[in-house]
Task: inverse folding
């Protein structure tokens, strides 16, 4: 549904995107993550034909963003970071106007507007002027506009910005529902949002893809934290010899107490064996915690690694 091949964008000497490539299939919901200035919004603006790339190609539903921009727009619903609205228009009036612009058939227009109002929780304000709405309601109007023509692809830039916690839950539920029959690419700074609604995360840093993968694969990166009283080298050798332990990394050692991050071999759970080995070796066990690496940890590692790579390229 979305194909991006070595996409680059420069603003004078500044390279906002540098060879970005990824693909999204039908009914896939992906989160585009990255620090401020990483290139997320630039990527989305190119995919929605608001910007032209300096080099590279991008196509949506088989339509090239440079060769067939109007066809691309017919297949995409876009929620920009700052929703442009006519403050003097009423909510239903605006959506009816937008439905005409999106070529929604006249016979289906009223129903499409009513469904968008209902799905985005705008029924109570449908006759209110847009200029009198809170930021949260304006954001929901933008989302209603994005889904109005029922496009196969939705591109959402910070879809929950400005919403209260209840509204955030409602919009996340809506995005999960939309993901059952739409391809969705959304950007956000909120890790929990990606974990709540996305099946895949694409992390971009300094204009390059720093990490791209399915969340279920990220969740397999589990570890065991072991804290015991004893000498670091002796405990490490004992842990490394336990069946099912791939590695044991010392986190800290102080006052005769050591903490290790133990990585299991795939498909193994060596917690009981680790506990038994420490007790039998005379190292009192103080903590044994099974933990998974969070998306936030992966994000920080990917961005930090990207920064170090960039420093290396500049130095060379």
Result:
């Amino acid at each position: 549904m979305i194909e991006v091949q070595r996409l680059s964008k420069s603003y004078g000497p500044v390279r906002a995107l540098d060879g970005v490539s990824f693909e999204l299939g039908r009914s896939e919901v992906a989160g585009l993550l990255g620090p401020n200035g990483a290139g997320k919004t630039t990527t989305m603006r190119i995919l929605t034909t608001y910007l032209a790339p300096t080099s590279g190609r991008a196509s949506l539903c088989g339509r090239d963003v440079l060769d067939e921009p109007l066809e691309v727009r017919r297949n995409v619903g876009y929620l920009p970071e700052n929703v442009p609205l006519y403050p003097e228009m009423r909510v239903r009036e605006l959506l009816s106007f937008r439905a005409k612009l999106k070529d929604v058939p006249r016979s289906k227009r009223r129903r499409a507007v009513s469904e968008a109002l209902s799905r985005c929780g705008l029924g109570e304000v449908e006759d209110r002027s847009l200029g009198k709405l809170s930021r949260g309601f304006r954001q929901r109007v933008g989302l209603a506009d994005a889904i109005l023509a029922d496009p196969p692809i939705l591109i959402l830039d910070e879809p929950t910005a400005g919403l209260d916690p209840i509204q955030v839950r409602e919009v996340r539920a809506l995005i999960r529902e939309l993901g059952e029959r739409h391809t969705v690419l959304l950007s956000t700074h909120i890790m929990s949002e990606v974990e709540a609604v996305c099946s895949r995360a694409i992390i971009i840093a300094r204009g390059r893809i720093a990490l791209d993968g399915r969340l279920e694969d990220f969740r397999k990166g589990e570890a065991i934290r072991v804290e015991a009283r004893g000498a670091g080298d002796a405990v490490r050798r004992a842990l490394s010899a336990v069946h099912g332990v791939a590695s044991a990394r010392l986190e800290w050692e102080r006052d005769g107490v050591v903490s290790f991050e133990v990585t299991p071999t795939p498909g193994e759970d060596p917690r009981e064996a680790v506990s038994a080995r420490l007790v039998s070796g005379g190292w009192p066990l103080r903590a044994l915690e099974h933990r998974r690496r969070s998306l936030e940890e992966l994000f920080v590692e990917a961005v930090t690694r990207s920064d170090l790579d960039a420093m290396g390229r500049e130095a060379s």
Residues 222-292 form a domain with the Alpha-Beta Plaits fold (CATH 3.30.70.100). The chain is about 35% helix and 30% strand. The chain has two domains: 2-218, 222-292. The mean pLDDT is 90.
